[in-house]
Amino acid sequence: VYLRMQRFSDAAGAYRNAIRLDGDSAVRQAGLGEAIASAAGGIVSADAQDAFEAALKLDPANAKASFYLAMALAQEGRAKEATTAWQAMLGRLPPDSPWRGAVEQALAKSGGSDVASSGATNGPDAGDVDAASSMSPQDREAMINTMVAGLDDKLRQNPRDPEGWMRLVRSYVVLGKADQAREALGRAIAVFGADSEQAKKFTAFAASLGLAATE
User: In Å, how far from its chain's centre is CA 17?
Assistant: First the structure.
């Protein structure tokens, strides 16, 4: 319930209480990891990884834990390891698993080798949304948020990527996060200079999304 309400810290607390009072389980540990990652804006932190790893110890077939641990590798720049993890996961998933689409999209975007350019860093597109359509609302929201957070992090490291900035602004708008979209727009303009041609393109692009530039 807390995850659906985007009260991620409360969700993490609820999962910890459930584990303490009702016992450990793969579902609870994976839920805890998801809540921690969501509270961090989609970044799969060390605490989230610990929870996902605990889930896999209890149930090696837990798809949620496997997916997010691969995403963590991608966010850490360990592209080949992330690709290997996603490929292994794809080989284990049943044909009707709702996670197959998400994994296939990640691998397709990476070309099977470079996760740094995959959905983990490029932000969600229509294909990602389609792939996530059969997931639960909280899983879908968490997956998309993780992708957007990965793109944001990549742009902080390599800011001279005009298309990346436009993907980030659009992603935040689609997610209904107008303040973060404006903040990203302001950062993009600052990188290229307020009087640059690229800044004018950013402003026009944002306006086409119904977003005013930062003051």
Answer: 26
Query: Whole-prediction pTM value?
Result: 0.56
> DSSP secondary structure string, the chain?
-TTTTT-HHHHHHHHHHHHHHH---HHHHHHHHHHHHHHTTT---HHHHHHHHHHHHH-TT-HHHHHHHHHHHHHTT-HHHHHHHHHHHHHHS-TT-TTHHHHHHHHHHHTTT-GGGSHHHH---HHHHHHTTTS-HHHHHHHHHHHHHHHHHHHHHS---HHHHHHHHHHHHHTT-HHHHHHHHHHHHHHH-TTSHHHHHHHHHHHHTT-PPP-
Measured N-to-C along each axis, helices 63-75 and 46-58 cross at an angle, to the nearest 10 degrees, of 150
CA distance 28 to 109: 30
CA distance 122 to 175: 15
3-45 pLDDT tens trace: 555 577 888 889 999 999 999 999 999 999 988 888 777 788 8
Phi, psi of 114 (to 5 degrees): -115, 90
Q: Is the dihedral of CA 8, 13, 15, 18 positive or negative?
A: negative
For the chain, which residues make up each domain, given as ranges?
8-158, 159-215
Q: How far apart are CA 85 and CA 87, in angstroms?
A: 5
Domain 8-158 falls under CATH 3.30.1130.10: no
Confidence at residue 113, expressed as pLDDT on a 0 to 100 scale: 38
